[in-house]
């Protein structure tokens, strides 16, 4: 089993953190986004959407889409469950993981893709080119501000994003926050005391270095 | 168990089709989007994102997010598996389901939300208001055109979206295509013979009426 990834790709980091939390031994194969290796014929044969990460199983089956990879690894390897144990628990975690993705992660990503000079003509991830729309950058920042408010409210009532335990939902929320800090210079402010408490707890886990 | 839904909501239809395919008996509770009932305190207590659908289990647990509801119902009720049987099969189906969502369904939805007069100030689903960006409408239509091309290529090599069998990925792709036909007046053209063959097959299943 091997994971095609890129070191600077926040989606790749979501999977790497999950792998680290579960203590899995999976070969990492770098894809050089700087030379647009993801658009090479060789990589498109692995993932026709031309995005990282992709997990390739020993039988050659390619699993794309970050949350799908995360869930697959958690289903396939029982140690350190990061989506809970029952179908109901898995659904609750997957719901919160997806909310963190849509409201947080995807909002930052949309802003970055529509702003970065290096992504001109590639405003939407995937194999097709689209021009940037500058208005989306400001809208994305407002979405991230709302994500912070909502995340703070959530973490004021429970210690972790999906409830009482650290789960895959914390991984996506952490990567989203780190991405917003780095790409949008949107730090966690003092008023968001619940996010700050949570962030100090999840970002010191060894997996956060992944 | 009951499903909060809206009859005109394409996301609700994804879940209703899955329920019909599996032959499940789940109470449907209508949410009136026309009077903005999804923003009521009562509904926000069920789903803080203020979106339909939401599945509420007998113990009161609320499961939001359409693909999460679909996967939960398939995990919880073994009859007529729509994501396959093994962890690997489920991952492959979930990957193709998500691709149909991101490249097809979400592209149509983005165009509609940024165009419809009735959605002014609500260009992004969820509890927060955002102004429409007209440029996104054209970009969304180009994304749907690319989705059609890619879907046709895929269906030229396999009979169903995820491979040899009808799965949850076909449900999302069918709802995306019907949504594009209705909202964008983008019919399946003659050149897309593989989509047409597939569409004629999946749209006559009784579940498609759901």
TrEMBL record, chains A, B:
It comes from the Bacteria. Residues 1-81 form the GST N-terminal domain. InterPro entries: Glutathione-S-Trfase_C-like, Glutathione-S-Trfase_C_sf, Glutathione_S-Trfase, Glutathione_S-Trfase_N, Gtt2-like_N, Thioredoxin-like_sf. Keywords: Transferase. The keyword Metal-binding does not apply. GO terms for molecular function: transferase activity. Pfam families: GST_C_2, GST_N_3. Residues 86-210 form the GST C-terminal domain. This is Glutathione S-transferase.
